[in-house]
Design goal:
Order of helices and strands: HHHEEHHHHHHEEHHEHEEEHE
Largest sheet: 4 strands, antiparallel
CATH architecture of the largest domain: Orthogonal Bundle
Number of strands: 9
Structural class: alpha+beta
CATH class of the largest domain: Mainly Alpha
Distance between the termini: 12 Å
Radius of gyration: 30 Å
Strand content: 5-15%
Strand order of the largest sheet: 5-4-7-6
Shape: elongated
Number of helices: 13
Number of domains: 2
CATH topology of the largest domain: Triger factor/SurA peptide-binding fold
CATH superfamily of the largest domain: Porin chaperone SurA, peptide-binding domain
Helix content: 40-55%
Amino acid sequence: MRTKRSSVAVAAGLAVVLGLWSGWSVYADSGRKPDAAPGTLYALATRVPQEVLVEVNGEPLTRSEVDAAVEALFGAELSRLPNAERAVVRGQLEARVLDDLISRTLLFQDARVQKIAIAGDEVDASLARLAASLPVGATVSDYAAAVGITPEDLRENIELGLRVEALLARELDAVEVPSEGEVAAFYAENREQFELPERAEVRHVLIAVGPDDAPAVRETKRAEAERIREQLSGDPDANFARVAAEDSDCGSAADGGRLGAIARGDLVAALEQAIFAQEVGEIGPVVETEFGFHVIRVDARSEPSSTPLSAVADAIAQSLTEQRREGALANYIAALEAAASIVFPAQAPA
């Protein structure tokens, strides 16, 4: 009996599958290295089988392997979650990890079938990198013992991982890079991604107002803002950055009141209207917002523009190539699945 898996997991991308034997995180959104050192996931597959969750061409994947992989990759994050939330998240992670272990197993099996050869010095180099990652004084043998396998098993597992990497390199290196015409077509069809809106370089001084300030207090603060505006407008030598540093209640005071490049929609409406109506170098009228009273200077303005194709062609080509490689990987694993016997014993008829 073969139970077909969802193709969603298959299309998760190159990093998902490669990560399963390299010892790094298998999920692009995890954003960190796993808690286990490189090579640990090889070791996990050699532990004593317990509950069999799935058989891939007769090769069992067990509950202990999934549990150990989840702990190795996500244990630290899970431990920080509340108990109720932890159970839900762990269940989701277990399903994702099992899908990826199935993909890994299919690739391992295909590497054996294809008789991909790896030179001994490549395995030695990987073991040397592992040794360099261990704590001072620890050896590869210590590491192998800690994860419950022999040094020979560890070497064999690393060699198998390298064989799979070589297998995928052979398959994915055949992916064609996009032509100049394809890059240009993507640029033309997605012009909005390369449009730069009108922007203004802005500094301001904020005299903050609190929600509980009495009307008299607000008027006093408005008067302070007007005083600062007159000071900056009437003295050509006045240093806006210095005044902002001394008088502004905004965090930007530390940077001389600089708000940076502002586009429409970045700020509250009253500020935006004032900024884009104001001349460059001019000190405009005091602007009132929910935050308080603002004295604004526009230092520079740029009109709407488009990033030229020449400036983004390489990035577009790289992105399209990666998409094609991910698609090729998904198709390759899907083909392995289609030819495989993937049986979930719990789903099999009695």
